[in-house]
Design brief:
The chain is α/β, with parallel strands linked by helices. It has one domain (2-141): HUPs (Rossmann fold, 3-Layer(aba) Sandwich), CATH 3.40.50.620. 49% of the residues lie in helices and 26% in strands. The chain is built from four helices and five strands. It has a five-stranded parallel sheet, sandwiched between helices. Helix 2 links the parallel strand 2 and strand 3. The radius of gyration is 15 Å and the shape is globular. The termini are far apart.
Length: 142
């Protein structure tokens, strides 16, 4: 089974990536798992608030992922594609290499907004590309 990692922040760009991947895989003859990843950062806060803030961010991340997974399943036309979700605290630059290694990811597919293209490519994507040992596909949103 091939595993494709799709980081999502639930934006239009992320939804576009999911639609593109599902369209591309709609007639494949082998098994694929699409692993949706959402990362979150806990802002600096008072120690007594830290756990509550973390729990709330994790809950929102998991709820968003579950909603996105249900939408993917209903849009999927290929029974050989399965779906899973993963919510993780940290930055994309740090979390993606860890997930690629530990989950034996075959490909990472990410979206990019036109407005953010230059600064994001220079920082986040170049770091990720240099930190993983699998293909990285970038799907632009126009």
């Amino acid at each position: 089974m091939k595993i494709i990692l799709i980081p999502t922040d639930f934006s239009a760009s992320s939804k576009n990536v999911i639609e593109c991947v599902l369209s591309f895989l709609k007639e494949v003859g082998e098994d694929y798992k699409l692993l949706l990843l959402n990362t979150y950062l806990v802002p600096t806060s008072q120690p007594e608030d830290l756990i509550a803030v973390h729990d709330e961010l994790r809950k929102k991340s998991r709820e968003g992922l579950e909603d996105q997974r249900k939408k993917m399943e209903s849009a999927n036309l290929n029974a050989r594609i399965s779906f899973d979700t993963l919510s993780h605290m940290g930055t994309l630059e740090n979390v993606i290499p860890h997930i690629v290694k530990n989950h034996h990811i075959d490909c990472v597919v990410m979206g990019i907004d036109q407005e953010k293209r230059k600064c994001v490519l220079e920082k986040t994507y170049s770091h990720i590309l240099n930190s993983i040992m699998c293909p990285l596909m970038i799907v632009p949103t126009y």
